[in-house]
Amino acid sequence: MMQNHPHDLEKHLLFARHPAAWKMIAPHVRIKTCHKEDAVLHHGDAASALWIVLSGWVKLARQTPDGKETITGLCTHGDVFGEAALFPHASYPYNADVLGHSAELASIPANIIRDAVGHDSALSATVMSLLNERTSQAQLKLEHMSTLSASQRLGCFLLRLCYMQAGGAKTLQIPVEKHVLAAYLGMKPETLSRSQQQLKPLGIAVSGAEIEIESIEKLRDFVCNSCSESGACDVEAAS
Amino acid sequence: MMQNHPHDLEKHLLFARHPAAWKMIAPHVRIKTCHKEDAVLHHGDAASALWIVLSGWVKLARQTPDGKETITGLCTHGDVFGEAALFPHASYPYNADVLGHSAELASIPANIIRDAVGHDSALSATVMSLLNERTSQAQLKLEHMSTLSASQRLGCFLLRLCYMQAGGAKTLQIPVEKHVLAAYLGMKPETLSRSQQQLKPLGIAVSGAEIEIESIEKLRDFVCNSCSESGACDVEAAS
To answer: Which of A23, A93, A199, B157 is 20 to 30 Å from A11 by CA-CA measure?
Structure first.
């Protein structure tokens, strides 16, 4: 996975196998440090760039006309957002705001990434695969709302982070406020607290924004046996 | 939208703007009539074809190792499934079974569609757009689970069908058993019955598999004012 340094962007899943496309894209990439609650982009704005998180956390959220908020994504390093930029005349389908102290973000202008994808069929295949993975994740999340318990959903989120953050690391930093994480996981804050308690016997210790995981195996047994993707999703691929 | 006839496949959203690609693909398309509860494909099978529903209904579902079923999709004519065939070495992420009396399906061998997409960057852009639309729909469905009432979720499903089935038609045929539709919409069968009752004052009459909608406008007001996509999704595009 990508390391926490902008110059490693060429090693990102999106570009690693496409050095020629990356060479064309690289001069146009902008690196930006955004601070807590900075709005990175607004729902409905013309999608002018594709974004990659280099460090920190970004919340993707949308609001209904009658004032409810849904959290569509919690992105951390290596995560891509703003895929609408891949399509002409598209607008962003959510707001993106920085969580925690600050986040370092890379942006690729929409015309540059579209041009690269249009001219490089291998890059285009990688982008399609990314979009398909997005659908799978959203559908799996839908499934989990009815098949997993709250503590299993929290466990699944942690397993994904173990994979994303540092190839199987067991200490996670999640500077995401409790009510935000709870809303993202489709539960109330008090249910999230209860779920953290329920994961304790599996050797999972939460202390502020830091979470220690004693055994990924135990957590995987607890979560993945209740999931239709058991053995096939990214979480499992991390093993 | 596509008509209920295989020879109109070239007018499908996927191919309408890509006559050269369609010419290459057309000789390889197979048309198949499947009957009630025929298994079209199995979760985990190598994804050997991309499928398009010509008529009838197909249920996409997955099972967890501990025996729960989730309905990932209810497809009717014009709908595409089996997108895993777009990716090498991929397997289908669900079972597909025929609902109702029978369904007519078109299948395009995986190597043919992959080859066409790899050689035609415009077709590739259309496929990307389809995949992105899939993600949007799944994320919207996730949002709806927490922001819409059960009767609004049923209303949104009906609005989409009005759009899909016949460019704004007001009589829908839905030969989908109540427990299946309820599970797909994330509710209990008795909640679905109650939701049907709640839609009556909006002029929506359910009689067996037939649903009559007096005013799409009224239904849209009832549903879309509570949805973050209000004014931008396919449902609205149908207006």
So the answer is: A93
